[in-house]
Amino acid sequence: MKYLLVLLLAGVTASAQIKKEQLNLMPWPQSVVLNDGNFALNKNFKVNITGNPNPRIFGGVTRFLRRLDGRTGIFFEQGFITKLNEVPTAELQINCTKSGKIGLYEDESYHLDIKTNKITINATSDLGALHGLETLLQMLQNNNTSFYFPASKISDFPRFTWRGLMVDAARHFQPVDVIKRNIDALAATKMNVLHWHLVDDQGWRIEMKKHPKLIEKASDGMYYTQEEIKNIVKYADERGILIVPEIDVPGHASAILTAYPEIGSKVITLTGGTSEKNIQGTAIATYGIERNAGIFSPTLDPSNPKTYQLLSELFDEVCPLFPGAYFHIGGDENEGKDWDSNPKIQEFKKKNKLTTNHELQTYFTMQLIPMLKKHGKQLMGWEEILTKNMSKDAIIHAWRGPNEGVVAGQSLIESVKKGYKTVMSNGYYIDLLYPIASHYLNDPMPKGADLTAEEKARVLGGEATMWTELVSPLTIDSRLWPRTVAIAERLWSAEDITDLASMRRRLDVVSFRLEELGITHIRNKDVILRNISNNQNIDFVEEFTNVCEPLKGYKRNKGGTEYQMYSPLTLFADACTPDAKDSLAFDDAVAQYLANKTPENKAKVTAFLNKWIAVNKGLVELSANAPLIQHFLPLSKKLNDASQELLLVLDNKSTLKVDDLKNLIELCNSKDHADVELSVYESLKKLI
Amino acid sequence: MKYLLVLLLAGVTASAQIKKEQLNLMPWPQSVVLNDGNFALNKNFKVNITGNPNPRIFGGVTRFLRRLDGRTGIFFEQGFITKLNEVPTAELQINCTKSGKIGLYEDESYHLDIKTNKITINATSDLGALHGLETLLQMLQNNNTSFYFPASKISDFPRFTWRGLMVDAARHFQPVDVIKRNIDALAATKMNVLHWHLVDDQGWRIEMKKHPKLIEKASDGMYYTQEEIKNIVKYADERGILIVPEIDVPGHASAILTAYPEIGSKVITLTGGTSEKNIQGTAIATYGIERNAGIFSPTLDPSNPKTYQLLSELFDEVCPLFPGAYFHIGGDENEGKDWDSNPKIQEFKKKNKLTTNHELQTYFTMQLIPMLKKHGKQLMGWEEILTKNMSKDAIIHAWRGPNEGVVAGQSLIESVKKGYKTVMSNGYYIDLLYPIASHYLNDPMPKGADLTAEEKARVLGGEATMWTELVSPLTIDSRLWPRTVAIAERLWSAEDITDLASMRRRLDVVSFRLEELGITHIRNKDVILRNISNNQNIDFVEEFTNVCEPLKGYKRNKGGTEYQMYSPLTLFADACTPDAKDSLAFDDAVAQYLANKTPENKAKVTAFLNKWIAVNKGLVELSANAPLIQHFLPLSKKLNDASQELLLVLDNKSTLKVDDLKNLIELCNSKDHADVELSVYESLKKLI
User: Where do the Beta-hexosaminidase bacterial type N-terminal domain residues begin and end (chains A, B) (predicted)?
Assistant: First the structure.
């Protein structure tokens, strides 16, 4: 009888209808309707494709099956899918009207219809169908013994056409496998652009057959071969991702000038001769690959015809590697120091009636437009390229914000009002390790700005930027994910999808699922912690990461010289992430306790305090055989001391004067240890 | 005063002399002498290189610095090393007499001398120096605050010249990054050969420009481009590793014959005509890429001149990709079924006086020798190629053992006695998931065999084999490591280095350090467990892996059809490894208790039993939301039931009859769940 009851209960579990708010869809689709019943998965589950899709759908469906294999352990009979209409009776039917084109404004919509005995995905193009498959994977549910999809109807399409991620492969080189697995993650989160920052002061990363000096002298051997680039472009195409390459000019040019100093702007004045006769002259400066982080002066010479000759040749070699319609030429952060001190350039400005360096840079940028047009490419650049004479064909990449003395969103408004198509990155600088909420609530469409429909249409979308001064192949995934999923939702879903609690709940599952694509954000954290703890148990170190966040903004690596582009970055801060796990939970516990001082609510707070005391004790013990723990032990000690005193405070047993207590808590506001800060400091303060 | 004391104690710790048996060196060097004092590491530590080394040393030293950076968090000032004698005053001086050649019989010796203020590595070739750097990394010690090298003198050289690993990229394709990181791991463990099994029934993995059909029809799009191969060969060369490619013929030929059925041996008899007149004929069979595991009949036709024409062309394209002097042509497991049933081949045998299929295969193999010689390559093949007429130039790869009905080591003895240079793989089949001890104690030099010095010299060394029927990119590292380090020690270190306890202690540290090379054997286990537990806490599942081992030998995937070459292998067995963590510890606890039934010894045993009861309870709870746990829950239940009863037995409170108790324990000997077995079964039995 007991067994029968269990079976009955299992039956109840299996058929329990899931609610919409329990679904872990992200980006949230435009329309979701749940119906009664479930589609049960079994080994015979098969897929069939009809219509006129691009062949990329075959690989997409095969990968879909393998991921479903992996999650469910079912290992379906169907292997590789290589043809249309292979299994007309299949349970999952995918129909696409036409072949999807990789680029802007393509129809990426899809309709997913899950019935209890049949699933259909209808899409205009295979790109929409690929999105539909990702949604279907996210619809997977389980009870205690089996997997199923809940009956439902989903209609979906993106809000913005440009949903991008920029990856900087210059500061810390990012090998092919890093790029590939992140392309998979972009596809899984319905993003469609990878902006590949390939050249900067710290290196030139593209194999050049006609200009081999660039890789011989300016890459430290770390570059992508042309075949690797073509292979990645193909890989991206198969997953619906457009690649936009960037060669950053005229500033950020240390690497280019290391190979070609003759087109640099810096002048060296030579003084010689005798006391009777002074001989003065100028010479070309030499340059070296930059090892540090910062904004540097090496800049191309816009007055030198050789500069344009070389750039034209470089574009001739690089453009054919990238079939996409856009080419990013950077154009940012050129301070013009070397221009100001170069008499020839000053003369050139006068002659061409260019009154400011900004106008001079516009002159420079305008020369590049035909070089790119020749290859069917539209020029894109960071917002500094925008001046009154800039071609309206250029796409503006808005990035500056309060940190650069610009009101948030202002650059984008100016740009679209002036008639430029614009992509928004201000507010999406995920390398700065700000909390996820700040990115999630940052809408590319400026609120309250008085934009016409035409101007609004020029807001193409947004792009998360992953600059890699402090990011290595070991850590890049944890800097990218899961926060980039929140940006993906902002760019895909309806404007009013802004509930933080819902986002966090869904993100927890979507983040975990990224592991199946090879994303290392979870697994590599433990690798760093094992190194720090010197092969001892990592539980205490891991607990401490739950209350520590890496310094935000530009506070880590001040001056840009503490860490170099070859630094392995295996430190405690590199294992920590924004939105430290215990922060919100502790803040909730404190708020509940302050609102209602029941023993239960008190116990929730003291549980945290006691945990941190135990963590400190554990860390002290581990540190006897782990020098790297010393870096953050003082911070743990501060949290320990505050926790011990707060336990007394909560019991009304503290004998400290208020000021001394405040000082003790204030010590937890330290930013002096191991490049991290305590994320629970603000909540601790509330307890006194 | 208190602080002074702490400082003094720290001083004592720092200068405490380490003992030889505390060093975590592996493979253990030929000579180690410890002296007084330590070399302390700080940010100014620099390296200088002198002599006439191959430039590969520059990258090797740069990587050495980065790894030391990562371990210590010191981040040394020295960046890239690109020249000889850059820092004549550097603390670490490396001198090499000559440029090392990648191949057999090269001098790989080195002398490492660590003094308190200076370290020197002297080596004949840079290959020896690279080994010396690995030893130096393994010499790193720490106290609570700092890192240092103990003063010492090490002289070292390998016992065998062939220290290899075979990786099968045909069964489950292994992407470039998998191959690269494992080349790093081979270099770190002083191995020097990567035997790359590139072609088998399940796929052809080499891009062919002149024979594109092979990748179009027989690779499923999973192959290495020629540039990737060259890139890997270069990568291996830079790390002192010889690559030996393998194209397996004439058997294992399903992939080749999928593209070129016309050179297959299978005959199809056609019967037609009318009742008055029978028309009979033969036709060429068609072939398909094999999806399952096993030994299959598709075999090249040795009587067909086209076979040799094609092979010659294939070698012409493939050989130049591999500068090494050896080419492996497989030659194994050809059962000759299709030869026997092909009248033309039977006729060919008669005509050429080849009485057996074995002689026919020798005829075939002999044709390949000049094709390879033309490219400066020596032929190597699995032991089946050895027959009385086989050229003495061929290198024999001995692999068969008791599983194939051959006495262990017998093939090798026969081979060297007959005059062939021989590499040993029998006993090193790490894909079969046997305990590490079985590989560690397996010496390539047969004990007790009556070999002359000349015959002994023909024993080149050994090779671990990683066949990938049940191994995916996600799991390959945990199948390779750390067990391959034990084989590396067997092949490098002196014959009498056989202490299992010492090996296990050292391996624990060396295994952990492999993580810094990107080896995923530790981190990817948790990825699988997170998937199995459906994003719930993995502690209980992890604990259960500590007593579970994947089925050994050929017991998993019986018949070869349960798992396919595209199966993702994300199951519980794929997270488990040989030598499950708790097995030895529990066995020790049982042995101690049985020897001396003190309360302390009893407590050690009951702690395990209680843990397994708790694990089962935890798994039951998790399984409510994790269907994949159901696969092994019955096994956990069996261990739970046995543990509960044994607790009663230990307290003399069991009321079960002896036979019932025995049966209860015997249930723990099950091999019916989730492709694993309980590693503590034998120890449990001892308790009754």
Answer: 23-156
**Statement to judge: residues B331 and B467 lie in one domain:** yes
Question: Is B490 within a domain?
Answer: no
pLDDT in tens, A568-587: 999 999 999 999 999 999 99
CATH number at residue A325: 3.20.20.80
A516, part of any domain: no
Are A447 and A341 contained in the same domain?
yes
Which chain A residues have a beta carbon less than 8 Å from that of B526?
A: 522-523, 526
Q: Per-residue pLDDT for A686 more than 90?
A: yes
Q: Do A73 and B515 touch (CB under 8 A)?
A: no
Residue contact A631–B227, C-beta within 8 A: no
Give the A window 529-558 contacts with B, CB below 8 Å.
Answer: 530-531, 534-535
Domain that holds residue B455: 162-299+315-474
- Nearest by CB: A566 against B66, B564, B627: B66
A261 within a domain of the structure (yes/no): yes
Q: Which of B146, B225, B563 comes nearest A627 by C-beta?
A: B146
Residue B365: phi and psi, rounded to 5, are -60, -40
* Residue A228 confidence (pLDDT): 97
Kindly state whether residues A139 and A185 are assigned to the same domain. Answer: no
Q: Which of A115, A131, A156 is the last residue of a domain?
A: A156
CB contact under 8 Å between A79 and B566, yes or no, is yes
Distance from CA of B145 to the nearest CA of A (A): 4
Asked whether residue B217 falls in the same domain as residue B83, the answer is: no
Q: What is the pLDDT of residues B12-68, one digit of tens each?
A: 444 468 999 999 999 999 999 999 999 999 999 999 999 999 999 999 999 999 999
Identify all chain A residues contacting B523, using CB atoms and an 8 Å cutoff.
520, 523-524, 526-527
The answer to whether residue B13 is domain-embedded is yes
Q: Are B469 and B536 members of one domain? A: no
A503 burial type by CB count under 10 A (0-12 exposed, 13-18 middle, 19+ buried) = buried
Q: Which of A101, A148, A141, A139 has the alpha carbon at shortest distance from A121?
A: A139
The reply to whether residue B70 touches residue A531, judged by beta carbons under 8 angstroms, is yes
Instruction: Judge: B522–A512 Cβ closer than 8 Å, yes or no.
Output: no
Number of H helices, E strands in chain A: 25, 20
Taking CB atoms and an 8 Å cutoff, what residues of chain A touch B222? none
The count of structural domains within chain A is 3
By C-alpha distance, the chain B residue nearest A13 is B624
Tell which of A156, A191, A214 closes a domain: A156
Nearest to B531 among A71, A520, A563 (CB): A71
Residue A1, pLDDT > 60, answer no
Q: What span, in angstroms and rounded, lies between the C-alpha atoms of B212 and B234?
A: 24
Q: What is the ipTM of this complex?
A: 0.95
From CA B399, how far away is CA B396, in angstroms rounded?
9
Share of chain B above pLDDT 90, in %: 92
Q: Residue A551 — pLDDT band, cuts 50, 70, 90?
A: very high
With CB atoms and an 8 Å threshold, state whether A527 touches B509: no
Residue percentage of chain B with pLDDT more than 70:
96
Residue type, position B317, single letter = E
SS3 string, B27-77, reads: CCCCEEEEEEEEEECCCCCCEEEEECCCCHHHHHHHHHHHHHHHHHCCCCC
Tokens of B239: 């790390």
> Which chain A residue's Cα is nearest to B177?
A177
Clarify whether residues A316 and A177 are in a common domain.
yes
| B147: helix, strand or coil | strand
B362 in A contact zone (CB under 8 Å):
no
- Give the domain CATH number at A31: 3.30.379.10
Q: What are phi and psi of A184, to 5 degrees?
A: -60, -40
For residues B563 and B426, membership in a common domain is answered with no
Q: Euclidean distance between the first and final Cα of chain B, in Å?
A: 59
Please check the confidence at residue A543 and state whether its pLDDT lies above 60: yes
Asked if residue A103 and residue A8 are part of one domain, the reply reads yes
